[in-house]
Amino acid sequence: MEAEGGLELTNSFVVVAEELNFRRSAERLNIDQSALTRRIQKLEHILGFALFERTTREVSLTPAGRTFYEENAKLLQGYARAVGAARLVAEGKTGILRLAYMAFAATELMPHAVSHYRRLYPHVEMNLRYMRTQGQKVALAQDEVDIGYMIGPFDHADFQSLRLAADPLYVVTPLNHRLARLREISPTDLAGEDLILGDMIEWEAYRWRLNDMFSAEGIAMNVRLEASNTLALLGLVAAGLGVTIYPKSLIGFLGRNVEVRPINHPAFRIQTVLVWKRTNRSKTVRSFVEVTKKRPVQPA
């Protein structure tokens, strides 16, 4: 039997086996009773044995027909489940979404979008990975992740991006530091100041953005210490060893041992962008992008 024709014949047989009535079975299948009869006769001819015993008053399964029904009912149920599961994947309602994020998206942008997405698509498995911006670019190119929150801008012919935020930058100082006595800080106030920044291994993209901002103002950054994680940076600042620079989105998580002041300059902002591969046609990715678009972009 050809696959498509065989499935049609088998499905017709299962319906008749369940109804044991050709008229009701034809109505259920939305075909003529004579066409249904021909289908069953064709199936019996192909199989080489009778499936039903027919009298003028009733229809019943033969012993072979009973066995054939029991086995095919299991197969058709499995087929229906497989079709349903595949349809959910095709519609982006189930499957796996592999999402990468960096520190500046970890507190608000990513969690809020994931929370909204999970409410709309509860059967999609979310695989979240913390990853620096440069690592995300490689992982996206190698199809190790589907979508990423990274430091922008990021313009590349192979990728699409969506700007989510342009976060104002703040200076983080020890308590009672001279800069903390100012209401606002200009970039020139930081000339010669001891800076404590994330190292180039983990914070490369952010360091390059900061370097571009300071260079545009003709100011050299005086980086005295480096650390790989935010807790170490804050500990070094709180100990009075220098100051660091954080985006506004992280300010609420700094604790009470440091003080913060905004940098009063329109260019001193750090962008967060959502990035995915142009060739990724997955509906889980597209639906996540749509969910993210519905959240207002933080102003530049």
TrEMBL record:
Output the Gene Ontology cellular-component terms. Answer: protein-DNA complex
Per UniProt, the keywords (alphabetical) are:
DNA-binding, Transcription, Transcription regulation
- One MF term in GO for this entry? DNA binding
Matching entries from InterPro entries are given as: LysR_HTH_N (IPR000847), LysR_subst-bd (IPR005119), WH-like_DNA-bd_sf (IPR036388), WH_DNA-bd_sf (IPR036390)
User: What Gene3D superfamilies does its record include?
Assistant: Periplasmic binding protein-like II, Winged helix-like DNA-binding domain superfamily/Winged helix DNA-binding domain
The job of this chain, per UniProt, is described as: NodD regulates the expression of the nodABCFE genes which encode other nodulation proteins. NodD is also a negative regulator of its own expression. Binds flavonoids as inducers.
Q: Which family does it belong to?
A: Belongs to the LysR transcriptional regulatory family.
The name on file for this protein is DNA-binding transcriptional regulator, LysR family
Organism this protein belongs to:
Bradyrhizobium erythrophlei
Traced from the root, the source organism's taxonomic lineage reads: Bacteria, Pseudomonadati, Pseudomonadota, Alphaproteobacteria, Hyphomicrobiales
